[in-house]
Automatic annotation (TrEMBL):
Entries under SUPFAM superfamilies matching the protein: Guanosine diphospho-D-mannose pyrophosphorylase/mannose-6-phosphate isomerase linker domain, Nucleotide-diphospho-sugar transferases
Domain MannoseP isomerase/GMP-like beta-helix span(s) in chain numbering: 295-349
Family listed: Belongs to the mannose-6-phosphate isomerase type 2 family.
Lineage per the UniProt record: Bacteria, Bacillati, Bacillota, Bacilli, Bacillales
Limits of the Nucleotidyl transferase domain: 6-288
UniProt EC number: 2.7.7.13
Name under which the protein is recorded: mannose-1-phosphate guanylyltransferase
Keywords assigned by UniProt, alphabetized: GTP-binding, Nucleotide-binding, Nucleotidyltransferase, Transferase
Catalytic activity entry: alpha-D-mannose 1-phosphate + GTP + H(+) = GDP-alpha-D-mannose + diphosphate
InterPro entries with a match to the protein in the record: GMPP_N, ManC/GMP-like_b-helix, Mannose-6P_isomerase_type2, NTP_transferase_dom, Nucleotide-diphossugar_trans
GO molecular function terms noted in the UniProt entry: GTP binding; mannose-1-phosphate guanylyltransferase (GTP) activity
Matches recorded under PANTHER family: MANNOSE-1-PHOSPHATE GUANYLYLTRANSFERASE
A GO biological process held by the record: GDP-mannose biosynthetic process
EC class (word): transferase
Length: 358
C-alpha cells in the first residue's frame, strides 16, 4: 500500500508576531537551523516518502512561496484552499484528491511548523503508525509524552489496552480532551496516561472518508459533489466555487473526539510546536543568565529574556522575563507570561485598521 503525506501549511502563526506576518508566516521562516520550517518538514519526510507522494495544503497567499521554497514538489501536489475552514475540511478535501491519485493509500497528516530534534526516532514511530493503520479500520495519532503541565495543548487519554508493534507500545485511546487549566494539567502529568495532542495522524484514505461520511454527513455530501465536478472541471475552479460551503470545524472535534478504534503511540523525539515566542527557550541553548538572544544587542543585568534584533541595536539594563523582538517596522515588548496572548495585539491592529502591520 502506498504511503502519502499531507502537510498543513495555511496557518498565520499569529502568536509568533511580529516576525510571523500575513505575507510570510512562521512555517516559511528559519526559526531553527538554516532552512524554513516547511523545508525541514519535507526534507524529514523524504527520508521515508518520495516527494511525489507528499502533498501540501495551503491558501492562495502561500502557494507561490511553497513553489519557491520547495521547487521539487510537484505543483499538482499543492492543494489551494480559497478560504480557511479549519482542519476537518482541509483533511477531507486532501483525502479526496490523494485518493484520486493513489487509491487505497495510507495518509499521514501533520502540521508544517513543528520542530523535531530526533528525526530517526520520529521516522521509526511514523513507520510504526502506518503499520498500525494497516491492521484494520484504525485512526492512529502520535501522543507526545508531557514533560511539564502545559495548558496550551489538547491532551489524549490512553487506556491500558495496548498492542506491541516493533517494540513500541500502541495504546487504545479513551478520549481526546480540551486544553486544561493548570491544576488539571498537573493531574494529567502525574497520571502517566495522558499525552499532548501533536496534531499528527495516520489513517487509510478510505477509513477517514468513511468516518467523515458517518460523523460529518453534510461535509461528506459536499466532498462527493466536488469529486464529481473534479472529473469535468479544473480542480482549482471547483475548490473556488465549492469549498466555502464547508463547515468551519477541526478534525479533532469533528472526528477524533467521536470516533472509535483510535490508537495513540507515546512519543519522545524532541517535539515542539513552536506555538509562541517562549518556545525558543526550549529549542535553543540559553546563556548563563537564562536568555535567548539573537542579533545586535547589548544586555546588562538581563535575565530570562527572549531578545531578537533585526539590525537595530537593542540595549537592555536590569530587565527580567521579557520578550523583545524588533523587525523592520515593529518592535514588540511583552512579558513572557503574556506570550500566549499576543493574538490580542493582532485583534487590536485589525480594530484600528493597521493592516500593514499584520
Amino acid at each position: 500500500m502506498v504511503t502519502t503525506c499531507l502537510i498543513m501549511a495555511g496557518g498565520k502563526g499569529e502568536r509568533f508576531w511580529p516576525k510571523s506576518r500575513t505575507h510570510l508566516p512562521k512555517q516559511f521562516l528559519n526559526i531553527s537551523g538554516n532552512k524554513s520550517m516547511i523545508q525541514q518538514c519535507i526534507a524529514r519526510l523524504q527520508k521515508f516518502i518520495p516527494i511525489d507522494q507528499i502533498f501540501v495544503i495551503t491558501n492562495e497567499l502561500y502557494a507561490e512561496i511553497i513553489k519557491v521554497q520547495v521547487p521539487t514538489l510537484p505543483q499538482d501536489n499543492i492543494i489551494i484552499e480559497t478560504i480557511g475552514r479549519n482542519t476537518a475540511p482541509c483533511v477531507g478535501l486532501a483525502s479526496l484528491i490523494i485518493e484520486g491519485k493513489f487509491p487505497d493509500s495510507n495518509m499521514i497528516v501533520l502540521p508544517s511548523d513543528h520542530i523535531i530534534k530526533n528525526e530517526n526516532e520520529f521516522l521509526t514511530i511514523l513507520k510504526t503508525a502506518v503499520e498500525v493503520s494497516g491492521l484494520g479500520d484504525y485512526l492512529v495519532t502520535l501522543g507526545i509524552s508531557p514533560t511539564y503541565p502545559e495548558t496550551g495543548y489538547g491532551y489524549i487519554e490512553s487506556s491500558y489496552e495496548s498492542l506491541e508493534i516493533n517494540e513500541l507500545l500502541v495504546h487504545k485511546v479513551n478520549k481526546f480532551v480540551e486544553k486544561p487549566d493548570a491544576e488539571t494539567a498537573e493531574m494529567y502529568l502525574e497520571s502517566g496516561n495522558y499525552y499532548w495532542n501533536s496534531g499528527i495522524f495516520v489513517w487509510k484514505t478510505s477509513v477517514i472518508r468513511n468516518y467523515i461520511k458517518l460523523l460529518m454527513p453534510e461535509m461528506h455530501q459536499l466532498l462527493e459533489e466536488m469529486k464529481t465536478l473534479f472529473k469535468v472541471s479544473d480542480r482549482n475552479e471547483v475548490i473556488k466555487s465549492e469549498f466555502h460551503k464547508m463547515p468551519d470545524q477541526s478534525i479533532d472535534y469533528g472526528i477524533m473526539e467521536k470516533a472509535k478504534d483510535i490508537y495513540v503511540i507515546p512519543c519522545v523525539f524532541g517535539w515542539d510546536d513552536v506555538g509562541s515566542w517562549t518556545a525558543l527557550e526550549r529549542i535553543n541553548n540559553l546563556d548563563e543568565s537564562g536568555n535567548v538572544i539573537k542579533g545586535n544587542t547589548i544586555c546588562i543585568d538581563t535575565k530570562r529574556c527572549i531578545i531578537e534584533s533585526n539590525g537595530k541595536l537593542i540595549a537592555t539594563l536590569g530587565v527580567e522575563d521579557l520578550i523583545i523582538v524588533e523587525t523592520d517596522d515593529v518592535t514588540l515588548i511583552c512579558k513572557k507570561e503574556k506570550a500566549q496572548d499576543i493574538k490580542a495585539l493582532i485583534k487590536e491592529l485589525k480594530v484600528q485598521k493597521l493592516e500593514q502591520y499584520l
